Amino acid sequence: MSSEAPDHAAENALVIFTPSGKRGRFPLGTPVLTVARQLGVDLDSVCGGRGICSKCQITPGYGEFSKHGVTVQADALSEWNSVEERYKSKRGLIDGRRLGCQAKVMGDVVIDVPPESQVHKQVIRKSATERVIAMDPATRLLYVEVAEPDMHEPTGDFERLAIALRDQWQVADVSADLALMRRLQPALRKGDWKVTVALHQGNHDATPRILDIWPGFYEGSIYGLAIDLGSTTIAAHLCDLKDGRVLASSGLMNPQIRFGEDLMSRVSYVMMNPGGDVEMTRTVREAINGLASAIATEAGIHPRQIYEAVFVCNPVMHHLLLGIDPVELGQAPFALATSGSLSLDARELDLANLNASARVYILPCIAGHVGADAAAVALSEQPNKSDDMVLIVDVGTNAEILLGNKTRVLACSSPTGPAFEGAQISSGQRAAPGAIERVEIDPVTKEPRFRVIGSDLWSDDPGFAEATATSGITGICGSGIIEAVAEMRMAGLLDPGGLIGSPEQTGTWRTTPEGRTHSYVLHDGTADGGPRILVTQGDIRAIQLAKSALYAGARLLMDEMGVDKVDRVTLAGAFGAHISPKHAMVLGMIPDAPLNKVTSAGNAAGTGARIALCNVAARNQIEATVHEIHKVETAIEPKFQEHFVNANAIPHAVDPFPELSLIVTLPVVSFNTSGSGGADGRRRRRG
Amino acid sequence: MSSEAPDHAAENALVIFTPSGKRGRFPLGTPVLTVARQLGVDLDSVCGGRGICSKCQITPGYGEFSKHGVTVQADALSEWNSVEERYKSKRGLIDGRRLGCQAKVMGDVVIDVPPESQVHKQVIRKSATERVIAMDPATRLLYVEVAEPDMHEPTGDFERLAIALRDQWQVADVSADLALMRRLQPALRKGDWKVTVALHQGNHDATPRILDIWPGFYEGSIYGLAIDLGSTTIAAHLCDLKDGRVLASSGLMNPQIRFGEDLMSRVSYVMMNPGGDVEMTRTVREAINGLASAIATEAGIHPRQIYEAVFVCNPVMHHLLLGIDPVELGQAPFALATSGSLSLDARELDLANLNASARVYILPCIAGHVGADAAAVALSEQPNKSDDMVLIVDVGTNAEILLGNKTRVLACSSPTGPAFEGAQISSGQRAAPGAIERVEIDPVTKEPRFRVIGSDLWSDDPGFAEATATSGITGICGSGIIEAVAEMRMAGLLDPGGLIGSPEQTGTWRTTPEGRTHSYVLHDGTADGGPRILVTQGDIRAIQLAKSALYAGARLLMDEMGVDKVDRVTLAGAFGAHISPKHAMVLGMIPDAPLNKVTSAGNAAGTGARIALCNVAARNQIEATVHEIHKVETAIEPKFQEHFVNANAIPHAVDPFPELSLIVTLPVVSFNTSGSGGADGRRRRRG
Fold first, then answer.
1. Which residues of B touch A178 (CB under 8 A)?
2. A671 or B492: which carries more pLDDT confidence?
């Protein structure tokens, strides 16, 4: 390659790539793929230029070249050849496309690399800050041609495969476990010494390892799981490791809740029942195994096609997943057994449903109360790169709270309990079809309307009954209970202390006596054999405790940071639909902020897990970042208790944002199995 | 440290270490251990200078210093202190010894480091070439003091342990498996943040891994196994990983012989019985597991104290141990699945009786027919460092043959069958107490006398019956059958073709008819209820086939090397007593050579395994060496068949070395469970 010169070198042609703009001069006859590699142009190839994989498709820019003031030759690329013809006849090829490994440069030419031929395809994550995940997965497919054995120059088949990977893919010093060694010789012979391998290379210069091998060119895909392992819920994304596409998202309740609803009750369970941690470890691993199979079935793949899983979780779940007694996490100084990231074999975690060679990556923990889930939120939301002061709240059974900007980031964890996830709520359920996820209550008539997961219709829209006939109306999920309580307050059904008024006080039969307190009848399906869905006084108290803990944590970080307000707030939750910023503020979950500065980020921890799954460099990034995040310990801070007590009331008696006729929740990556959670609007104006 | 100067620096003392001779000037008050470290003197310390481990004992050379022409100060070291006093009162300390971590340099002094305080203790291996194994094991014990957790600077306990190992032992980036992580927190707290770890660091810059942890200073030892996994026999040494001492040596028959006596019949078994390799793998792993327990019991330790095992084996056993189908090894081009060395977890090989975190190292193979056992022989006998042309023959079911010098080394494997190991011999048995291991036959009377394993007496010595009463006389082992056949030839009982003469021809009732041929009655114990031990015509034929194969392999290498004679011969055998060089030459097992140039090396492959167990640098060395060894393939070489046919006769009809009244077999490392095999002599002269 020579640099561009005004006079054309005799036998060199000028090649310009779009969209990268990279350019150089090359001898006539050089294949386009070779040119791309030498220029560092992002042009994919799995088969290494053998006309098999078709990943290197390019579009020669005939006719457009004149824009650059250079005459375009009609024969700027070599003629369409038999390899391309065979590929097109067998698999199809868009008109005008060429295979970069076959087409040779025969004159000055502009070559466009379409997005699907780029290795680092950019997957746009639609959120408040349109951000991009560049694909750079730890596990990928590579096609290689291996030298045949020679009796007189004896080396093992594996050693010759390793040399082929080094020479053809610049992957040095590969390893493989014994299970792969067992399958190596038949695969090489069946593929006539051509094979495709699934190669895993973790971060920290980890030894590359061959996880799987197929004879010849493997047409299939390999998949990964991004798992947010929460105290109450386990949420997973199944991703294609080639392009990051989410094939399915699913979740289930953490079966450990039978040992204790919150983390400290699980730690207590171990203290009271020696060996209880072993039981909990087994339980959660079985659940993850089942979830892996279920999500694979949903996506129409086999769970054996899952080669990698990334976990984010709080410290107690982290230890229980790993099989480490969490008892030290229950008492000061809350020492983690290990805080660093972990790279493991899936079989070490008994995840037998995944591929037998599957790998696991677990994000680092920040501290004994601030786990890998908080690290994942930091990876997803990047407070350390924010110009303005951002408060990020990830709502779960423990809330992970981050506050900061590019100068400094603080983190804490606040024990909100499982109410925000629909647990400990009388009609609560996890976010699944049939769960009420949005609620409005008319401040005049006190009548509610709602939406359930699985339908975009409101309960007073025509066709709602038909649309929800399959799922029924089964309960109320986390985002639903937040909205219900906030709406009840704004409709005058609650006093500032959270007490539900009697029918005489509220003027509606829906606040009906239940023992010594009142409940609000959100929906009565008993006529159709369905449940009666109430918001009880106990539900209000549970939400008050949860939101006070959340608020107190945020305030504690603000005290530590020395700020009295934040520039923006990001609300995230592991499960269910997105939390409504307005209702969160009505409840007093978060400090007041301009509504357009409060965004909902879906499952930020899960998104962080997905980023780490799709991009191995992101693992290095978050491992470095966690060392810069300063942890604030809520458990021993007297001011936390003070803030907690002060935050009990529900501050806003009226809609604090009546001027907004439409509140847009931006579309985000959703962990909701129903696939809902896209853009939605409020259609009624109230004041 | 400053260099020695003619005029003494004001506050510096001259310190000279023996036996290394290293010297330097140091400030008064510097601890001897610090001085030793700065000078690179080999002075051990496990506790890192805390007066706990007593490994750093030294002897100050008062009074001897005048030899160096320097005045000795009576107070050249600081005074005996309370730490030393406590140690001496609790554990004892040889008079005159000091602890190097406590004694400080106070004046010019000569300090002797006794052998037991040297890290790289030199274990003399007594053989023809007195060679030394420097201890540098992959697994060692380290004592560390770990920082306590701090809530405000949160890091995991493991991460603080890793920092302690880095700072106190210069071991960076340690890892640990989940089982260790589980035990970490209790051990740290029980030891009050002081622990001893068993740290494994393999070759090739492998990540150091913590295999075990104990609270406080661990007084115990850790052990390793060196295993020679042969087709017919499995031999193991149990070694202390601190000093290389062999605590016990043991062995058993390879239970795979029920699937086929030799390697090719086992490969055939797999071809005929799909899944047969799985069965054979399970069988051999169970046997190794059992052997590990037995040898540990014999040595009075628990097999869980075994943290490492090194394996050497031929290629078929290599694959069957690893669980790889060996079928490719049965046909040209004899491709190994993998030829490189392997570092594995013992649990990957189902070696469940060892420590749960134990590691396994398997030496590299040279080629499809020349395995890790040949590599081990090369490591032990080092033909590549020999000035003269040496032939090394390792006798087993396959003989590994090496020929060469520092210029070039050739290797081949020859299918001798199991006869040399006592298998396929009518009265054959493995080398164990009761087995006949040495035989002499009087050429005049044709009467035999013999020795059995477990006694140093000959059968015609007084007290022999009493000495062998416990074991009995049960059969004949490999070295015994070699001597018996050679002695029969020299006594005129065999013709050159190997036919046993009739009583009429030989003049002794001991050559007695058995069917259509004759047998020689070596011992008749039937009167006492014991066996009748015969050498049958079939036994002679089996030995002839075996020795012809061995000889043909050696000749093939000599052809390839272009030499007609060799300067010296080393005879090695995996099992039983040492092969008698004279009898080997009488039989025609090896080319003729001066008898004083033929030495017996015991189990050279096993010694190679032990070297690799005790010295991690030796692993790098043999991995490099195998690439320089040129393999000759016997299976496809027509000249091998030619040599084989020509070698059938038994060449020497009379003792070729009658002038020697005493043949000394040099004492070597013995794999014989009886502990015999030391120097022994021939007491009769015959001519």
1. 322-324, 344, 348
2. B492
Q: What are phi and psi of B25, to 5 degrees?
A: -105, 140
Q: CA angle A68-A71-A74, nearest 5°?
A: 120
Q: Which of B150, B151, B366 should we substitute to test contact with A (largest number of A Cβ atoms within 10 Å)?
A: B151
Residues B555, B410: contact at Cβ < 8 Å?
A: no
DSSP letter string, A496-522 = TT-PBPPHHHHS-TTEEEETTEEEEEE
Q: Give how far B166 is from chain A: nearest CA, Å.
A: 16
At the top level of CATH, the class of A12-117 is alpha beta
Q: Which of A178, A322, A631 sits opposite B181 (nearest CB)?
A: A322
Residue with the bigger pLDDT between B59 and A282: it is A282
Share of chain B above pLDDT 90, in %: 52
Question: Does A151 sit within 8 Å of B339, measured CB to CB?
Answer: no
Q: Quick one: which of A338, A295, A294 has its CA closest to A318? A: A338
Within 8 A of A410 by CB-CB distance, chain B residues are none
- How far apart CA B288 and CA B283 sit, in angstroms, is 9
CATH class of B244-362: alpha beta
Q: For residue A667, what pLDDT is reported?
A: 30
Instruction: State residue A573 phi and psi, 5-degree precision.
Output: -150, 145
Contact A339 B185 (CB under 8 A): no
Q: What pLDDT band is residue A362 in, cutting at 50, 70 and 90?
A: very high
Give the mean model confidence (pLDDT) for residues B220-247.
91
Asked if the Cβ–Cβ distance from A156 to B336 is below 8 Å, we say yes
Residue of B nearest to A321 (CA): B178
CATH code 3.30.420.480 for A223-362: yes
3-state DSSP assignment of residue A421: helix
Q: Do B339 and A154 touch (CB under 8 A)?
A: yes
pTM above 0.90, yes or no: no
> Which SS3 state, helix, strand or coil, does residue B164 take?
helix
Size of interface A-B (CB pairs under 8 A): 130
Q: Are B308 and B241 in contact (CB under 8 A)?
A: yes
Domain-wise residue ranges, chain B: 12-117, 134-215, 244-362, 377-418+543-646, 424-535
**Residues of chain A that touch chain B, judged by Cβ-Cβ distance less than 8 Å:** 149-152, 154-159, 177-178, 181-182, 184-185, 322-325, 328, 332-340, 344, 348, 365-368, 370, 631, 633, 636
Task: Please tell me the distance in Å from A357's CA to the nearest CA on chain B.
Answer: 13
Long-range pairs for A441-444: beta carbons < 8 A, 24 or more residues apart = A441/A484, A441/A487, A441/A488, A441/A490, A441/A491, A441/A493, A442/A491, A442/A686, A443/A490, A443/A491, A443/A492, A443/A686
Q: What is the DSSP letter of B407?
A: S
For the domain spanning A377-418+543-646, the CATH number is 3.30.420
Q: Distance between CA A475 and CA A467 in Å, rounded? A: 16
Q: B159, A340: Cβ pair inside 8 Å? A: yes
Most confident of A173-187, B8-22, B94-108: A173-187
Determine whether domain B134-215 maps to CATH 3.40.50.300.
no
Tell me whether the CATH fold assigned to B12-117 matches the one assigned to B244-362: no
From the list B178, B370, B636, the residue facing A322 with the nearest CB is B178
**Cβ contact, residue pair A181, B150, below 8 Å:** no
Tokens of B208: 């150091």
Rg of chain A in Å (alpha carbons):
29
Whole-number Å distance between alpha carbons of B186 and B184? 6
List of E strands, A50-112: 57-60, 98-99, 109-112
What is the pLDDT, as a whole number, of residue B20?
A: 67
B158 contacts on A by Cβ (under 8 Å): 337-340
Mean pLDDT computed over B480-495: 94
| Contact (CB<8Å) A158/B339 | yes
